Amino acid sequence: MRSGTLQALLWRRALEPHLGRWSLPGGRLRHDEDVETSIRRQLAEKVDLRKLKHVEQLAVFSTPDRVPGPRVVATAFLGLVPSDVEPTVPEDTSWHTVEQLPRTAFDHGSITLRARERLRSKLSYTNIGFALAPDLFTISALRDLYSAALGYRVSATNLQRVLTRRGALATTGETVPPGRSGGRPAALFTFAEHGMQVTDPFAAFRPPSTR
Amino acid sequence: MRSGTLQALLWRRALEPHLGRWSLPGGRLRHDEDVETSIRRQLAEKVDLRKLKHVEQLAVFSTPDRVPGPRVVATAFLGLVPSDVEPTVPEDTSWHTVEQLPRTAFDHGSITLRARERLRSKLSYTNIGFALAPDLFTISALRDLYSAALGYRVSATNLQRVLTRRGALATTGETVPPGRSGGRPAALFTFAEHGMQVTDPFAAFRPPSTR
DNA sequence: GCAAAAGTGTTTTAGATACACCCATGA
DNA sequence: TCATGGGTGTATCTAAAACACTTTTGC
Predict the structure, then answer these.
(1) Given B34, B63, B155, which is nearest A62 (Cβ)?
(2) pLDDT value, residue B211
(3) Domain named Nudix hydrolase: which ranges (chains A, B) (predicted)?
(4) Structural contact between residues B25 and B9, judged by C-beta atoms closer than 8 angstroms
């Protein structure tokens, strides 16, 4: 994610079919690796992306004709990279705003939209923001990340309170000086846990309280 | 599900490896079908189960040594059958309480537990109860189903209110006479929608209200 | 009449939103 | 001293849980 929008990393296909179209990075599963190891390897080898803070399975896409030629079953993943990773990606690879994806190869467009959907729901009931944010961040920076991912303006006030009440945020004591236009220095926060945790397990039907 | 517990349909393996152990029904994917079509076909052919009210992907299990011999990648599903389906299953197939599963083949025990986890969360924020209940049911019958699936006693009062407020329940006007021990006749309800719907989309971070 | 089961009314609690206000800084 | 952005205090809203109470039946 960069510049206030949610972005997906795509690369241009160098082979038929769908030569020249944008596609999600990936490749064949080896016999000695599981699917998560495989996708991490592919991202490292093919697009030099090693700093994923979170990787999770999305779904299997298996319609027989989803790819021309011999049948290909794909396990799709959602992988998240913090907003401060250097954007150096290889030639023929680039980040694309999810709101206006280019024409993609195969079903990669709908896979991307499903990934966004998954991210959006997890932002609500987990601490998954840790995977989008740098290690240290101000609340307004975090607000921008959440707003971009969710597609609507999030209130910084409430974001801070909700995440704090849930124990997801930790204060560092450090601050950042204001810009030219002034304003109070912003405090720097961290996520308390690294690794996804469900922070709001019972949206309803909670077990009876034990008091 | 039957008799107040959550149950899984397992069949005894007739072949090595793990001959005689209980395993989840399934089989190889054909070239002309997607994974959901495939699992529905296997359930129909192998264990004569055709009345699934809901089927959804769980996850891919792909650890290289999860099955002895040549590598097998499995796409696991959660499939739900209403409580009133006749329990006629073939020889060597039977329903097992998930709380005390027998020794299973391969990783089928952990797959089953993951399925239960998925079901439990979806009971909270969707109308997925429709897939566990008969077409017509009393609130106390529904309460028993929810209680068995969730593993704790659900209040009939609050269950009715929550599902009603969310628009998931519909009244039918019909009632059921009480048993020998008396009591007020119970009203029969239906689920308003057949097909899973998210009924509580925003556990948090709802978009600003448009008023 | 009384026990049993179903269902409703009402209070309480918890987690979130909304919004007014105070704080710390640059120019 | 004033505009600006950061942060807190407090009221309000909403969904759910908790529980007292009423309804309708069998015996």
Answers:
(1) B34
(2) 46
(3) 1-119
(4) yes
Total-model pTM: 0.93
For B47-66, what is each residue's pLDDT tens digit?
888 999 999 999 999 999 99
Q: What is the CA radius of gyration of chain B?
A: 19
User: Which residue's entry shows tokens 């150096």?
Assistant: A88
Cα separation of A72 and A95, whole Å? 25
Q: Domain spans of chain A? A: 7-124, 127-191
Residue A208 CA and nucleotide D9 C1' are separated, in Å, by: 32
Nearest CA in chain A to B56: A59
Average pLDDT of span A127-154: 95
Q: Which CATH number applies to A7-124?
A: 3.90.79.10
> Is B127-191 CATH 2.30.130.10?
no
Confidence of residue A137 (pLDDT cuts 50, 70, 90): very high
Name chain A contacts of B29, Cβ cutoff 8 Å: 62, 73
Question: What is the per-residue pLDDT for A183?
Answer: 87
* Residue A98 CA to its chain's centroid (Å): 11
